[in-house]
User: What shape does this take?
Amino acid sequence: MNHLEANFDGLVGPTHNYAGLSFGNVASQSNAAAISNPKAAALQGLAKMKALHDMGMTQGVLAPQQRPDLNVLRRLGFSGTDAQVLDKAYREAPSILLAAYSASSMWTANAATVSPSADSADRKVHFTPANLVNKFHRSIEPDVTGRILKATFSDSNHFAHHQHLPEHDQFGDEGAANHTRLCRNYGEAGVQLFVYGRYGFDASQPAPMKYPARQTREASEAVARLHQLSDANTVYIQQNPDVIDQGVFHNDVIAVGNQNVLFYHEQAFLNTDAAFAEIRSKFGDSPLHFIRVGTDQVSVLDAVKSYLFNTQILTLPSGEMAIIAPTECQENPAVHAYLSSLVTQDTPIKQVHYFDVKQSMQNGGGPACLRLRVALSEQEKAAVNAESLMSERKYAELTQWVEKHYRDRLTADDLRDPQMVVESYQALDQLTQILKLGSVYPFQR
Ligand code: SUG
Assistant: This one.
């Protein structure tokens, strides 16, 4: 039976803005208060989805969250009509208002961890939404994420959904941003790499000094248990705390894997040799490519600025691998030189395609942040909500929907406008019809 890896990208929501909410994420902090363009952001994301569809990939789309989240504002004591809630929050606690408006669910690499059926004991595809507890604006995502995932992958014969992990920093979980899977073919059992930034329960272990480590080892272990993975197909690796302190807030900012390729910066991990030996022994006998980028080739600073490792590595229908990179990689001389030479070397990666996702990049989200990978058999793919899959028609519908509902300029001041709530909820209500998701949003219940 044929197996494939689908990418489910997050559709950028109508309230996309730059709020500087993510301490430790350099781009988010340096673009705080910049003027955003939600329409351009959503169209950039859709153009990438459509391009991957046109390359013969299976491409899906995940709906954004309901924003602003007025329920969380009410829970925090802002009362009255919607307009009063917004106005009070704007005047008394603008940072909280910004958090309630964040369109951060676009970065679906953080939506959940997904394990394919080939690795799980019950032969189902497992999903655990990430609790994202390290950042308030993201910690309000997992319930609705769970609903969207259940509506998209609803067939319980094939898909198993878990509740997000308990909401505490000791179980901080950021989903697939710290998880990658190596395998020979998508349908064969593989090795799932869980990369953690620190231990939640053992303060004597190494940890970053300046910026937070969002993912804990204990969270990764819990997800592996829930997904019924065996020791033979899991490897845990600690992220190098020094690179977290240089702005590598998720492992997918410094390493990315696909099938038998692990593309990584030499400073990405702690105890790299031991971890790689374990990967080799669990992977089995066939060729495995560890593509190491040295600091002399690309510095950590350039990797963070260009998002060289926040690229997608795709296996195209021809069997060749391609890198999907942001245009920032083209603009950075060291990174561009590296990528141009990479495709001429003896590795499976033979193509590089550059995409403009600048609206997302300015908040620290590259091509790989925007997608959640789901490896599927043909049968499992047939069980996915068909309206969530990209096609010529779906692309046209979604583009029109964005053109109709989205603003092309948003500042922090605009967020006190009650009309934003009306506009955003109307757009989302229509989206659930386009994607045939049912009532996934609290305002629809
Ligand atoms: O969680 N940025 C996101 C970016 C997530 C990127 N994801 C991966 N690397 N997988 C974050 O830091 C910024 C929001 C703001 O500042 O407006 C933000 O949430």
